[in-house]
Amino acid sequence: MSVAPERQALLRRALAARPARRLELEEHARAAILVPLLDAPDGPALLFTVRAPHLSRHAGQIAFPGGRVERGESELQAALRETHEEVGLALPASAVCGRLDDHPSPYGIVATPLVAWVPWPITLRLHAGEVTETFVVPLALLQALEPEVEARVTRGERRLLHRYTVGGRRIWGLTGNVVKDLLERLEALEVAA
Question: What CA–CA distance (Å, rounded) separates 101 from 67?
Fold first, then answer.
């Protein structure tokens, strides 16, 4: 019997245990990102992208797939569309197990992270104009790390940025904060279980 449905149900419980904080900030565009939680043979893992070096924003940075929510589109639709465009991963809406807190970007965007349970391995097709590579980090490895924390003031607001360094790669900023939010929710459920 596969444990995937049990893990997916546990993930849904962890995400539903605390309502996600929604931010409505004036003059901020909406964006949606997909946090691919992989059902990998060696245990759950996260899929990250490395953004193309020629992009005007976040060039070369580590991120989750995602982008702006277009007119008439929901955050769910945007996250699924962007994930398919960037890495060729076509997921049904039912793969999304819940959402995390909204996170502001210093570029005037509020991003809504949606967490999806993804069977793994799957062949990906990277859009070279947006993504140069992907890599996978076991969830257990991230859970064992204590992130570095940096305080920054952006647009007059003080923010804490979390940074995880894995294999020489720096997962930080908005992406690091999303990882921190996910790990805290999973940890809270384990303590309560």
Answer: 16
Per-residue pLDDT tens for 122-146? 999 999 889 999 999 999 999 999 9
Span 4-144 CATH architecture: Alpha-Beta Complex (3.90)
- Domain positions in the chain are 4-144
Residues 122, 138 contacting (CB under 8 angstroms): no
User: CB 176: neighbour CB atoms within 10 A?
Assistant: 22
Strand 103-105 to 66-68 pairing: unpaired
87, 51 Cβ separation under 8 angstroms = no
Q: How far is CA 121 from CA 28, 84, 163, 178, in A?
A: 36, 16, 26, 23
pTM listed for this prediction: 0.92
**Closest residue by Cα to residue 115 from 177, 158, 64:** 64
